[in-house]
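S1.2 Input.
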Amino acid sequence: MIRLPRRPHIGILELHGALGSTIRANTYYQILDRLERSARIGCVLLDIDSPGGSVSASESLYLKVIRLRQKKPVVAFIRGAGASGAYLVACAASRIVAQPGAIVGSIGVISLRPVVGELMQRLGVSVSVNKSGPLKDMGAFYRPSTPEEDAKMQSLVNELFEDMVQRVAEARHRTVAQVREVATGEVFTARRAVNLGLVDELGDFDTALDSAASLGNMPRRVSYVRPPRPARLRLLDRFVGWAMESVEEETATVVGRRLWYM
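S1.3 Output.
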């Protein structure tokens, strides 16, 4: 038999949710690896709607998309939000397309932790600690941080921030000074992000598909790639969906008013 060559497709990977929790870095790293090695995929479109996430997850996906881009074009489409770590991942793509009302930016690093020492005292709970050095339990939830720990944590945040600014500058062909001006942690609409050099083009999902097809020199044939889900979770999603639709219909009937964005 003569085996005909497979026609290439645009592989679509949705990054919807927080990086590191909803979007498990290891799972999506493996998906990106399959997209990189697949002869059937000629171009990749990242559909992004994420507020960012952990430094490790964001960096892992960023570096993997960089490797993927070296073998085939990658287009990032920011649907609702491409902020912080999610924007960093988008920067690894060949081109960034965003909806005009999408939220872009939040370039920066933050460290936070709960402190429940007073609550534990009220409950009569204490923590006994033996440590090999003064910074071994830095970030502990059971006590306030010391000035030395605050200085050390700020040093780590500054170092990670410098890495992020450098990567954004390289990806967006901007100087480090230019990126610093917008790396205040604030977010921008995609309209303004284009003027700031953070986004290449405004448009909808079809615009991003057209861009991917053009970069890959291929027709708009798509293949959605999603992480596998157990059958019990798929059944649970259906049940929850039916239940929510029923509740929504009943609520609309009783309340008699809905809000629309039309």
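S1.4 Remarks. Confidence is low (pLDDT under 50) at residues 1-5, 249-262.
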